[in-house]
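Justification of computing resources. Each target in the renewal requires a structure prediction run like the one illustrated here; the chain below, 205 residues long, is used simply to show the kind of job we budget for.
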Amino acid sequence: MSAARRAARLASASLAGAVMVVCGLVAPAAAHDYVVESTPSEGATLTELPENWMITANAPLLTLEGNGNAFAIVVTDADGLYYGDGCVEVSGASMTAPAAAGEPGEYAMTFQYVSSDGHTLSETYAFTYAPEAEEPVTEGSTAAPACGGETPAADGADGAAGDGAVPDETGAVLAAVAWIGGGLLAAAAITTIIVLANRRRPAGD
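Resulting structure tokens:
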């Protein structure tokens, strides 16, 4: 086999490898993770208060150094009042938050998580709370609770600072994910450029 043919085969193999890397990175982004189980489910009627609100995806959720601040489960009633302590625990493909509710009625559970492909996904499930037996009644708050601290005031300076803490850390998580993915794409692009340049080079060089 001539040197030119060997070079051509090597170039083709390298190009195929680069394409596979790029396709392997693009394919997961086209199919985000999705919820396979939840408490409550969309449109459910709860006849008792569960121990935890829960969301389970089809793949392990993405956490960096155990940082769960990119994840949230927020429960509100028909009047827009918030329930719970704002804390979320992430384990594998599931995240949970201690369940709390006020009087029987219509509620909504809004949740956010970072899927295994690095995308932040969110959704809201409506449900009805109709306990058959006496359940603890939690007083709702007018502002979202902050994990590890007092419920922030609706219009106070302390509340604004508390609300700002989570988005900052969430941004750091997503920035790190974007940096890693961008580096891999750049490496694949450089490989492709080198291969194409070698293929265009005259056989005598």
